[in-house]
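Let's do one together. I've listed all components of the complex below, 814 residues spread over two lines.
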Amino acid sequence: MALIVQKFGGTSVGNPQKIKAVAERVLSYSRQGHQMVVVLSAMSGETNRFVDLAHQMQVLPDPREMDVLLSSGEQVTVSLFAMAVKEAGFDAISMLGDQVKIVTDNMHTRARIKHIDSDGIKKELDAGKIVVVAGFQGVTESGDITTLGRGGSDTTAVALAAALKADQCEIFTDVEGVYTTDPNMCATAKKIDKITYDEMLELASLGAKVLDIRSVSFAKRYNVPLHVRSTFTDTEGTWVVEEDKSMESNPVSGVTYNKNEARITISKVPDTPGMATKIFNPISEQGIVVDMIIQNTRDGELTDMTFTVPRTDYTKTMSIMEKVAKEIGAEGVTGSKNIVKVSIVGVGMRNHTGIASTMFKVLSDEGINILMISTSEIKVSCVIDEKYTELAVRALHSAFGLDQEKA
Amino acid sequence: MALIVQKFGGTSVGNPQKIKAVAERVLSYSRQGHQMVVVLSAMSGETNRFVDLAHQMQVLPDPREMDVLLSSGEQVTVSLFAMAVKEAGFDAISMLGDQVKIVTDNMHTRARIKHIDSDGIKKELDAGKIVVVAGFQGVTESGDITTLGRGGSDTTAVALAAALKADQCEIFTDVEGVYTTDPNMCATAKKIDKITYDEMLELASLGAKVLDIRSVSFAKRYNVPLHVRSTFTDTEGTWVVEEDKSMESNPVSGVTYNKNEARITISKVPDTPGMATKIFNPISEQGIVVDMIIQNTRDGELTDMTFTVPRTDYTKTMSIMEKVAKEIGAEGVTGSKNIVKVSIVGVGMRNHTGIASTMFKVLSDEGINILMISTSEIKVSCVIDEKYTELAVRALHSAFGLDQEKA
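Okay, and this is what the predicted structure of the assembly comes out as:
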C-alpha cells in the first residue's frame, strides 16, 4: 500500500464527464489499497473567464481580490469530484487551500508556499477517504486567500507529496511524458523514461513546457519521485528522479529551444568600470530579466555588449537602451527579435568531453551561424537565427543519438 | 455617520454592469461618511448551474460538498464587487463566511448561525474600507463550509447588522417594498411605509415572498431596523421595525394569500383519546408540516378531522391517511388541492373588535364559502375555494381601507 498524490489539470476536469472519468481512474488505485490524494485545477476556460470578468471591473485588478476570484474555480472541481467518488460508493472529502492549511507568503497571484499542515489530510486518509485538494491556492498566516501563479497546481501536488512523505507524485497532463525534443518539430522525438531533477530543471528553464520549474525544484529539494504521464492513456510516462549511475550512459538527454528571446547589442561602449551597472540597472528596474550576456573587446578602450531579453520585453528594452547609449557615450543600439536559443541538456555531459564542440560542429556543418553561446555543467545553449530552428533541433537530436530506439 | 448593512440579491449583481451600478450606489453612502457593509448573493443563475452540475455527479449530492460548491458563487461576486469599488477610488475588502467567522451548526445546506465574530469587519471599517461579505455562507467550528438555505443572504445581512449593532439593515430587492397585498392581483395595492416585525413575520409565513421569515425573526430578536427597498429606484421602501403607537391606527396592515395549500378530511373518526396522535404522527414522521387543524364533532362518538398540508405534499399525505383511516376505523378520506388560504394581518387588530366578523361578512357578501378559519392575536386566516382568490383579496383589501391614499 502506497501513499500517492495525483494531479490533474484543467483539461482533464473540463466537464462533468471528464471529472467522472478521472474519478474512476483514481478509484482504480484506491481499490488496490493505495491512499490517494488528488490535486485538481479549475475547469479549463474558467480561469480565463474570471480574468476577463476582473478586467471588466478594474483596469489593474486588485491582486488580493483576484486570488479570491480565481480560487473559486478549484472549489468547483474539488466538490464535484468528491461527489463523483461518493456516487461510485467510495468515501471522499474536498479540502481547500485554507482547510488543508497550505500557508504561503502574501505575494498575491504568485505566492510561495511557506509550510503545509499535513495532519488534516492524514486524518482523512486514515479514515479511508480519498482527499481531494484544490490546487493552485493557499492562505496567508492572517487568513487571506492566495494563489501560486503559473504551474501552481503542479507545485501544490509536489509540495503535498513532500509534506505527506508520499511514495510518488503523478502529474497527469495532455502529453505522454517528457520527450527528447518537441515531437511537433521532430518526428523521431522519443519519450524519456527517466530523467534527473537537474536535467528537468534545465529543460524547463530552457523552454520545455511540460512541467513548471517551481514544481521540479520543489521535487528535487524534497526528493519526491515525479511521474509525468498522460490522462488519456495507461502507459507509463516519464519519471523525474534523483540521479543514479544508469543515467549517464548518454551524454545528452534532450534538445530544447526557446523562441521567446530577443538580442540587443550596444556598440562601442567605453571600457571603464561601472559600465555594466549603468547598462543593466535600468533594465532590471523595469522588471525585465536579462538571460545571456556577452562582452566583446573591440579595439583598446571600446567594447560591444550583447545580451538577450524575453521577446515580449524587446521594444521596452530597446527604448531604455537608446537612452542609456546616449548617456554613456556608446555609438548606438541594434537588435533582433528573430533569434532562437537552442540547447542540449544531459547529466552525462559531465563525464564526456567534446560535447560542446560537437554541437558547434553540427550547427556549422548545416551552415548555421552561432550568435551567442552559454554553457553550464549539464547544458550548452546556442543562440542562432530563428529560421534555422527546425534544422538545428533535428540535426542535434540525430547527432547525439536521441532518435535511435532504446536498446 | 451611521453603520449601514446593505444586502443585494442575485439579480442585482447578475453581470459586471449591474455589479458596477450597485457599487456606485453603495459608494454614494460612503461618500456621505457612512460605514458600509455590503452582503451579496451569487450572480443570478449560478446557483441553478451548480445544482445542475452536482446532480450530474451524484443522484443525491453530498450536502457537505454541495456547500463547498454553492459557496463559490458568492466568492465570485464579492471579489468582483471589491474590485469595482477600488476602481472607483475607494478602498474595499471582500470577506467570505469563514473569514468573517460566521460560525454555524453543521446542518449542511440549511445551517443555522451560532455566532458571528464582528471584530475583523470592524477593524476593516475603521481602516476606511467598504467590507463586502459573501452572503448565504458560514463555517462550522471545525472549519467546514456551510450554507444557510433559502433566504440565506437576507439572514447573513440581518445577523451581521445585529452583531455589528448597525444603525440599519437595507435589503435591496426587485420590488419597491412590502405591499398591502400582491400588486399583481390587486391594482390598488399600496406600498407600506412601516410595518412591525410581528406583522412581517405573519405576512412572510402566510405567503408574502419579499422577505424570508428567518431574517425577520432575527431582526426582531436583535431589534435591527430593516429597510426593504428596490435596487432600481431611489424611493424609500418599507421599514420593518418595532411596534410604536402610530402604527395602530389601521387595524389591518395587509392582505395576503397562500396557494400552496391542500385540505384533507378524515371522516367519522372514533372520538377516543390518542386519535390525533395516530393521525398526525405518521405525517410528521415523513417531514410533512401540517398547518391548520379543525375537529368537528359529528354525532356522539364520531368526529371529522380536517387539516391542511403544503400542496406539494398532498399526494403523499393522502396515501398515508388512507392507510391510517383503515387502521383506526374511520369511514374514509377526502381532500382537495383547489383551496387557498387568505389572511388579514395587523397589530391594530388587538385594539379593535369585530375584525374577524368583518372579514367573514365581506367574504360571505361575495358569496364565498369559508372552509376553515384560523386566528392569532394579529391575523385572521380563512381557507376558501381557490377560484375565489382574486375576488376575496380585492374585497378584503378594499373593505379594510387599504386601497385609500394615505393622509
